[in-house]
Amino acid sequence: METCASVSDLAATSKRIPLADAAIEVRLARLDLDADQVGYCASLLSHDEQLRAKRFHFERDRGRFIVARGILRILLGSHLGITPAKVAFGYTKNGKPFVADHAGQIHFNISHSSERALYAISNRCALGVDIEHMNRDIDYANLAERFFSRREHAELQLIPESDRKRAFFACWTRKEAVIKATGEGLSLPLDQFEVTVAPDAAPRVIDFAGAAQRATHWILYDVNVGDGYIATVAACHRIP
After folding, report:
1. Could you tell me the pTM of the whole model?
2. pLDDT value at 2 more than 60
3. Of 97, 108, 112, 235, which residue is the least packed, with the fewest Cβ within 10 Å?
């Protein structure tokens, strides 16, 4: 049975991160919780979400998915004034989730990597978020060559090698946050728009190749999510 204490305890596991735009609520959550907390989150999920959870081979990954969705429900339920289990999701043709019956009332996005999840919620603008755990082995040079624009790739090569991996992830999260906000997913190729690359540069969209989008529609925020992680929140003030 759901209790207010259970909801409050789980909500307290997420940390609010202030942005310059107070109309956007950003929260960072830990996903590796104890068995009782995971079990409570599981009780909030829809049948479809429970089926998705069962598809994970490893218990750790299954638990992280359950907690990520449970906390999302708690945050959205708080905004909408409904219980977490009553939050009903719909999905666009490209898979972006929205709250059924409240699609124009609330915008949100979620990203998780390793044991942390990042959430953004607003009633004013389309949102995209991306968080990445940087302490893993990836062929970032090859990924940059394949997915970045020519300018972004060239700029990455100018960054000292000691800081190049962090620069790759800074650029990657900025681009991922943007495409998640559009709701187009990878149907919008990553090399069709450009963002700043240097990790210590102000995050921003520099150019869009498509006429439907303009760089001036976008505001990007770097978010401090702890050592070993990097994250971006993208806000589009013209709903795509």
Report:
1. 0.92
2. no
3. 97
Amino acid at 168: F
Cβ-Cβ contacts under 8 Å for 229 (sequence gap 6 or more): 113, 114, 116, 131, 132, 133, 134
Tokens of 193: 């728009």
Tokens 């970045």 correspond to what residue? 148
Give residue 5's pLDDT. 39
Measured CA to CA, the distance from residue 173 to residue 109 in angstroms comes to 14
Distances (CA, A) of 215 to 7, 40, 138, 207: 39, 42, 29, 5
The radius of gyration of the chain's CA atoms, rounded to the nearest angstrom, is: 18
Q: Report the C-alpha gap between 76 and 224 in whole angstroms.
A: 22
Tell which residue, 153, 19, 4, has the closest CA to residue 78: 4
What average pLDDT score do residues 104-122 get? 95
Residue written as tokens 């789980």? 10
What is the C-alpha to C-alpha distance for residues 10 and 33, in angstroms, rounded to an integer? Answer: 9
